[in-house]
Design a protein that fits this description.
Blueprint (H helix, E strand, L loop, with lengths): L4 H5 L3 H10 L12 H31 L1 H9 L9 H18 L7 H19 L3 H5 L1 H10 L29 H19 L12 H5 L8 H28 L3
Helix pairs in contact: 3-4, 3-5, 3-11, 5-11, 6-11
């Protein structure tokens, strides 16, 4: 059915694997540490760009199958580069609606959320552990490894993922407020800084007040990578569910 199926099902984690493989020949002497920022910037941009293209492909494929959604996409939607939270949330909620047309009993179980979160966290910790990239960013990596083990972690809490709004009987948000705000105020802001190279002319040194904020250390690449992986897994799983329901639908 889908011309984009192979790409949509390709995990974003492949990009991390490629980056680590490409850096395998770099030693971890102090003279190579300036490369850390360049590599992490490039990896982050490749991942955000990959995800933006995937959102477009999912939207196009949904429009191919559902004429009502096609009309909405062509005449009423403006997702731009599909990079901000709102555009991803709109694709998500519309995909949910199309699934519910075929199966009204859709339910995203707590066990799925737990597995999704653990797989994403474990991939980042296990894949980067012992690599030259984690050594170049040792402080940030150590923070991440400790952060995900912190009890009552408000950011990486299963309640933050695919919340079920029981008031309206629908899944309208990918994330609950904590992760949603982090995506907009931290991850998306960094995406724009790098994509538009604003770091080349803006004075982006953090203020002392910002450095004192409780959540400042969360603004690091390993946390951002984990959030992008969570989003990617959600869309791969939901789109696969949608295709399975289409294949079994009786018209």
């Amino acid at each position: 059915m889908s011309k984009h199926l192979e790409f949509i099902k390709k995990p974003i984690t492949d990009i991390i694997d490629e980056a680590i493989s490409s850096c395998s020949g770099i030693n971890d002497g102090i003279e190579t540490f300036p490369l850390g920022d360049y590599v992490m910037h490039s990896l982050f941009l490749k991942m955000t760009g990959f995800q933006e293209q995937k959102m477009k492909c999912i939207a196009w494929d949904m429009a191919t199958e559902d004429f009502e959604y096609r009309r909405k996409l062509l005449y009423g939607s403006n997702y731009g580069e599909y990079s901000d939270y709102k555009s991803k949330k709109d694709i998500y909620s519309n995909l949910i609606k199309l699934i519910q047309k075929l199966d009204k009993g859709l339910n995203i179980q707590g066990a799925y959320r737990t597995q999704l979160l653990k797989e994403s966290e474990n991939f980042v910790t296990e894949t980067f552990k012992g690599t030259v990239l984690s050594r170049m960013k040792q402080k940030e990596f150590d923070f991440f490894c400790n952060f995900i083990k912190t009890p009552n972690n408000k950011l990486f809490d299963i309640k933050q993922i695919c919340p079920d709004d029981k008031n309206i009987g629908a899944f309208n948000h990918i994330f609950q407020s904590e992760l949603r705000d982090f995506y907009t105020d931290s991850l998306y802001k960094q995406r724009n800084r790098l994509a538009h190279n604003t770091l080349s002319y803006q004075n982006n040194l953090p203020t002392l007040n910002l450095l004192l904020e409780e959540n400042y250390d969360q603004d690091n690449y390993f946390v951002w990578f984990t959030v992008l992986i969570i989003i990617d897994k959600i869309f791969i799983d939901l789109f696969s569910t949608y295709l399975d329901l289409l294949d079994s639908a009786v018209y």
